[in-house]
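Just wondering, can you check both lines?
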Amino acid sequence: MIWDFLHILGMRLLVWSGVSLGLGTWLWLNPALFWKGVGTQAWLWGAIDAVIAGSILARSVRYLRRPLNLAEANREAIKTRQILKINAGLDLLYLVVGAVLMWRAEGNALIVGHGAGIILQGAFLLGFDLLHLLQVPNEYVLPDFHLFDSEIHQPFLWEGSGRGAALLVHGFPGSPAEVRDLAKALHNQGWSVQAVCLPGHGREIHRLFQSRAIEWVEHVQRALTQLKESHFPVLLIGYSLGSGISTVVASREPPDGLVLIAPFWIDEPPALRIAVGIARLFLPFRINPSLDRRMAFPELKMAIDDLLPALDLNSAEFQRELQALRVPLIFIEQFRWLSQWVRHSAPQIRSRILVIQAVEDPIVRRASTQRLIKMLGTQVDYLEVPGGHDINRRSHPGHTQVRAAIVRFAETISKISGAFERIPARVDRGIP
C-alpha cells in the first residue's frame, strides 16, 4: 500500500506544481511588482515541486504493480514518515523566511511579493506534508482463521490415462475447491487435471491484499508452460476471475483450448478510466467495505457456506475483524488493471474457445461477456445456462450442462489435436 500512497502523493504534488506554474506565469505578466514577486516564487516552487513529484512517481511506478515485499514496504513506510516530518520542519522555516522578507522589505513591493509568495508555498506544503504524514499506511494483513487448511482447498494434479491435460483456475477469493467438480468430470474421461491456487488465496489468504494481478498471471502461466511440456493437448479452464487471468495467459502461452466460465472483466471505457484516475486523487487509500451489511444476502451466505462451511459469520471474533477490515484501494485496482490487460490480450488469442455464461449472473453480465466475445480473435463456442454466477456449484441449475459442454469441448480439442500433432523440437545433429 505504501507504493500506492507514494504514487498518489506524487500525483497530488504534480497537480499543485502545475497550478503553481500556471499561476506564476499569469501573475508574472502582471505589471504590479508585488504580483511579479508572488508569480516568480510560484513559478520557481512549481518547477521544484515538479522535479520532486517526478522523482517520487518514477520510484513508485517501479514497485506499484510488482508483487509486494511486506518487509520492504514497512521499511519504506517508516522512511516516508521521517521524510515528511523533516519536510514539515522545513516548511515552517520557509514561513519564517517569507515573513522576514516581508518585514525587512522596507516598502519594496517586489521583495514583499517574493516574501508573500514564499509564505503561500510554505503554508500549502506544510498542510500537504502534515496531512500525508497522518495518512502514511501500514500494510494490513488479514487474520488467519485457518479456513483453507483442509485438503479440498489445496492445489492438485491428478494424472489421467490419456495424453491430454487441463489446467483449472479458480475465482476470487476462492480456492481449487471451486473447480474440483469440473476437474473430476474431465478426469473421468481420462484427462490429467491440475488446479492451481492463486497467490494470496487458499492458505495464503492472509496476504490477499498484498497479492497483485501480475502474480496471478505469472503463476498460471508457469503452471501452463510446465503442463505443456509433458501433455498434449492442453486445455486452460478459468472460472470468474480465473477466466480473466486465463484470457491474459492464453495470449502469452497459447493452450490448445480455452474455456472461460462466467468470464470476469470490467468493461471500462477510456473516459471512465480517466475519471476514475482523477477521482483517486481525492479518495482515501483504504476503505471499509461494510461487508457485514451484505451478509444478509442469502446468495452470499449460501456461497460462503458452500466454500467455507467452517466459518461462523456470527462469531464475535469474525465480527470484530469485519469491523476492523480496511480494503486498500490499490488492491481493488488490480481488477481494473487485469481488465485492461484482458481487453488488450483478447484479440491476440488464437486458441479455440468455449465461453459459458449464466443468464441471471449479477456479477458477470451477459452484455459484458458478449463484448468480450466480439474482441476475441478466434473461433468461439458459446453456451448460456440458467442461474447465477456460481456455475461451479453442483446445486447450480446449469451445472450439469456446464460439465457436459466442457467434456464435449475437450473431446473436440482432442480430435482436432490428433489430426495436427505438435511438431517435436528439432534435435541439432550438426547439420547446417
Notes: The chain has two domains: 2-133, 151-288+326-419.
